[in-house]
């Protein structure tokens, strides 16, 4: 009988300890999802600026069709990817497409240096400032996402939350 009581007390203690962190795990998981959504929002903001940027550059730099086409195609590829933060292959493909888009935008801005009239155009300068701000926002959002994921992973690997995480199937 004492063994049964000890086992029952141990079971109650385990369930009590593991239940303590369930809500916090859910909150941290939601924080990770919100952080990823913010990263996607900032990437979308950048993609939304591109058509205006391309139109503005086209007006001044007709002969730079190749660079303009690269930017447009890179934006199109980014828009076609259905990214899932839990799928490593999808995430890698998304990051690669974002990198290609960033490179194409950089080439476009380098080409714009050859056109003084374009550089003096107010709408082009405004778009450059918006693009620069968006790149900074992307960097900040990614940093926050990484920090949130790190906090989540640390939390669910700590005792007693590790018990709750295993019971309910939470993974780092």
Provide a concise account of the structure shown:
It contains seven helices and no strands. It is mainly alpha-helical and 172 residues long.
Structural features, described:
With 172 residues, the chain is mainly α. It has a single domain, classed as de novo design (two linked rop proteins), CATH 1.20.1440. The chain is built from 7 helices and no strands. The chain has helices at residues 2-20, 22-60, 65-80, 88-112, 116-120, 122-156, 161-168. Helix 2 packs antiparallel against helix 3, helix 2 runs antiparallel to helix 6 (122-156) and helix 3 packs antiparallel against helix 4. The longest helix has 39 residues, at 22-60. It starts with a helix and ends with a helix. The mean pLDDT is 84.
Descriptive keywords:
single chain; 172 residues; mainly alpha; de novo design (two linked rop proteins)
What fraction strand?
under 5%
**Unreliable segments of 5+ consecutive residues:** none
In total, how many beta strands? 0
Distance between the termini: 40 Å
Q: What is the total number of structural domains?
A: 1
Large-scale geometry: rod-shaped
CATH class: Mainly Alpha
Can you tell me the CATH superfamily? LemA-like domain
- Biggest sheet overview: none
Average pLDDT score: 84
Classify the helix fraction into a percent range.
over 70%
What is the CATH architecture assignment? Answer: Up-down Bundle
**Tally of DSSP helical segments:** 7
Radius of gyration computed on alpha carbons: 24 Å
Structural class designation: mainly alpha
Main location: membrane
Subcellular location: Membrane
Keywords: Membrane, Transmembrane, Transmembrane helix
Family: Belongs to the LemA family.
């Amino acid at each position: 009988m004492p063994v049964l009581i000890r086992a029952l007390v141990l079971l109650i203690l385990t369930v009590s300890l593991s239940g303590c962190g369930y809500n916090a795990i859910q909150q941290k998981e939601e924080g990770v999802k919100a952080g990823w959504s913010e990263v996607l929002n900032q990437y979308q903001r950048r993609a939304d600026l591109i058509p205006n940027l391309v139109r503005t550059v086209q007006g001044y730099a007709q002969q730079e069709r190749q660079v303009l086409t690269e930017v447009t195609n890179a934006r199109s590829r980014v828009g076609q990817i259905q990214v899932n933060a839990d799928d490593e292959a999808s995430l890698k493909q998304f990051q690669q497409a974002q990198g290609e888009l960033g490179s194409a935008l950089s080439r476009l801005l380098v080409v714009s240096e050859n056109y003084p009239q374009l550089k003096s155009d107010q709408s082009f300068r405004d778009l450059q400032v918006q693009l620069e701000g968006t790149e900074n926002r992307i960097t900040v959002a990614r940093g926050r996402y990484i920090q949130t994921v790190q906090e989540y992973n640390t939390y669910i690997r700590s005792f007693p939350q590790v018990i709750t995480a295993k019971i309910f199937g939470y993974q780092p």
